[in-house]
Amino acid sequence: MTVLILTCAEDVTADMVVLALHDLGVPVVRLDPADLPGRISLSAEYVQGDFHGHLSTGDRVVSMNGLRSIWVRRPGQPAAHATQQSAWLTAESAQALYGTLYSTGTRWMNHPVAAEQARRKPWQLHVAHHSGFAVPPTLITTFPRIARDFAARHRDLVVKSISGAHPGDPPMALPTTRVEPDADFAQVTAGPTLLQQRVPKRADIRLTCVGDELFAARKLSDDKEVDGRFTDDGALWAPAGIPARIAQAVRAYMSLTQLAYGAFDFAEDRDGTWWFLECNQSGQFGFIELETGQPLAENVAAWLAGRPAPR
Amino acid sequence: MTVLILTCAEDVTADMVVLALHDLGVPVVRLDPADLPGRISLSAEYVQGDFHGHLSTGDRVVSMNGLRSIWVRRPGQPAAHATQQSAWLTAESAQALYGTLYSTGTRWMNHPVAAEQARRKPWQLHVAHHSGFAVPPTLITTFPRIARDFAARHRDLVVKSISGAHPGDPPMALPTTRVEPDADFAQVTAGPTLLQQRVPKRADIRLTCVGDELFAARKLSDDKEVDGRFTDDGALWAPAGIPARIAQAVRAYMSLTQLAYGAFDFAEDRDGTWWFLECNQSGQFGFIELETGQPLAENVAAWLAGRPAPR
């Protein structure tokens, strides 16, 4: 039984997992949906209640009926490499590929339907509350008056993107930014704006959840720094223990969102409380593995292979 | 408690349901997401586990906490009417609107996550099989050899769009077309192609499912006609009885897909068997109501209002 990986050609994180799967002796097929049609061929038959499908790329053929699991890493847009590109061909190819793969009943990391819902940041805050995390007071608004009132109540604020990366090629990550004390918020009428009470932090926490396995890493932080992704002060990620309450909340969150993989970001305040900032269902883990030595790729591979976690 | 309807300005089907809701004395707010930001303002606060949101348009304000239900009819793309349009503003506005509405825990017809999955046609075939419908043998392929083999086995075929309407403004519906006996299928390498055994039919069936209520309509069909949407032979839709086996399969399908509304298309063959063709989770019902007199708008309104079905 084969593991199917959907990702683009240049993806070193996928390379790490492919190596780990080779070590486990598990067959892998790696495809970029951008190559359908073209380098990838697809066929699926629905006859009298039976479903038979297969995918092929070059000399490799994989039966959709014999899939062990599917890992959706960084797939390209279907038909993006086609000779005659069109929105129509992309729609048809996406339907053909994902519609047939949905019919397989295999295990997904993560199922695209769960992933799409889990990307909605405001819903993340809601699920985080229900899972038992501490969540900084947050406002999403187009009303200047309400923004001013929120600023008066919560004083020290940051503003951040609601949708994540700025669309573009390549997409651009937008830093979370501290709001100046004299901001007047008149501009929020131009687009919904997410304001959040700033957490005075002593460390950033990245918690990676792979199936049932949790790995936390801590990086000490200068409290002046707002978004650790955009500063390089020489601090390194180091493995961190996970409070029982946090582990419980992570499991509740994964269950409510039906995700198999999630990368959680927390801000640790001076009292040691971990404040939920976000959960990225496709968050990178290579840089954490590199600095902490935590066996993340190996755990992803074990989950995909359906083997016990290796640690 | 208010019903929220997300749809574009020109939507006579929505007009019918709004009237029916007025008759029930239920407050309604109707919004087009294209008007956010601009004519629509939005605010939502997540503080200490509580969620408080509201939407306003002109002089109307609706609390997200007091929503009776949400009907996703034909919503425009968020920010499509904004003064300064951009992919970025659309992404931020979509996140703000749908992400906060997902946090309400209200009833949806249909929830966008369920709708997105239910639009995948190959997955529809899979679910239809599992629900107990008769489904014509179907192939989706980029392999000419497999297409030829399927044609040899099933002889009389139609070819249809996998993704539905051709993208464009306005989108263009593509007719299902009979495959000529001498077709050579070499072109299927250019894009995944859906081939289906043609059902020799005596009638088209449209079954509309609104919550727990089922309404079927039959239109007699000349067997030469392949796609009833594109011919006008004067035949009218008339109410039809629903076989018990079909009613059971519809309920199974709605449960597996988590839809509250679905418009099923069947081909009725000479033996009276209803062959599943597709289920459109946002299918029109105005033309059926007009010709059959079935109270579809009234039933949609009752479902949205949380009242017993009126028939």
UniProtKB/TrEMBL annotation, chains A, B:
Which Pfam families does the entry mention? ATPgraspMvdD (PF21068)
Q: Where is the MvdD-like pre-ATP grasp domain?
A: 2-111
Q: Where are the transmembrane segments?
A: none
> Which InterPro entries does the record cross-reference, listed alphabetically?
GRASP_SAV_5884, MvdD-like_ATPgrasp
Q: Which Gene3D superfamilies match?
A: ATP-grasp fold, B domain (3.30.470.20)
Protein name as it appears in the record: ATP-grasp ribosomal peptide maturase
Organism listed in the record: Streptomyces coffeae
